[in-house]
Amino acid sequence: MSVCILSGLVSGFSPSIMSAKTLSGQEIFTKNCSVCHSVAPPPKNAPPITPLAFRYHQRFKTKKEGVNHLVAYLKSPNKNTSIDPQAITRFGLMPAMVLPDAELRTVAEWVWDQDNPNMGVGRGIGRGRGMNQ
Ligand code: HEC
Fold it and tell me: 50 lies in a domain?
């Protein structure tokens, strides 16, 4: 009897006494974005991250510009500012992300860093392209 009560107490306590530690970009992505986005193709309900990162690198010269644009997009997705409007045709518009600015910035930097020139992943043709003609 007492054992039961005890174990109930213990399991009730164990998870979730987590302090507000700073999450990494990867963790923020897994928590908030990976429902829709895969990192590399094939896509889930949204374009995969590596081809998107590649487009950001093509469009913006510096990480700072790219990250600024990305943060703005995450807050308020819009087909006029999208770097890949065809993805909207294919997947629909992304919902706005309600996250603290610091987390948006961290995850945006992580997205930017997913275009790794040494890996060759996501280079060139994004999956969302040329499929609706
Ligand atoms: C409910 C599904 C969903 C979630 C959650 C989601 N996205 Fe998206 N995302 C989409 C879809 C759909 C698109 C393609 C259409 C568009 O660009 O709006 C997209 C587009 C994007 C783009 C391309 C933006 C551009 O400039 O065209 C980036 C980058 C991105 N998402 C990153 C993220 C990150 C980072 C998160 C988490 C903080 C996230 N997404 C969460 C569905 C989602």
Answer: yes
The answer as to whether 85 is a domain residue is: yes
Our mutation pick for probing the ligand 1 site, out of 23, 36, 89, 127, counting the most ligand atoms within 8 A of Cβ, is 36
32 within domain boundaries: yes
What total number of domains does the chain contain? 1
Predicted pLDDT of residue 14: 44
Q: Which of 127, 132, 133 is nearest to 37 (CA)?
A: 127
In a domain, 35, yes or no: yes
The protein residue with its alpha carbon nearest to ligand 1, atom 10, reads 94
User: Is 88 a pocket residue for ligand 1 (Cβ < 6 Å)?
Assistant: yes
> In this model, does residue 4 exceed pLDDT 70?
no
Q: Is 52 in the pocket of ligand 1 (CB under 6 A)?
A: yes
For the question of whether the overall pTM of this predicted structure is more than 0.85, the answer is no
Residues 38 and 48: beta-carbon distance below 8 Å: yes
Residue 116 is predicted with a pLDDT of: 74
Reading phi first (left if > 0) and then psi (alpha if -120 to 50, else beta), residue 124 is in: left
Give the domain CATH number at 81. Answer: 1.10.760.10
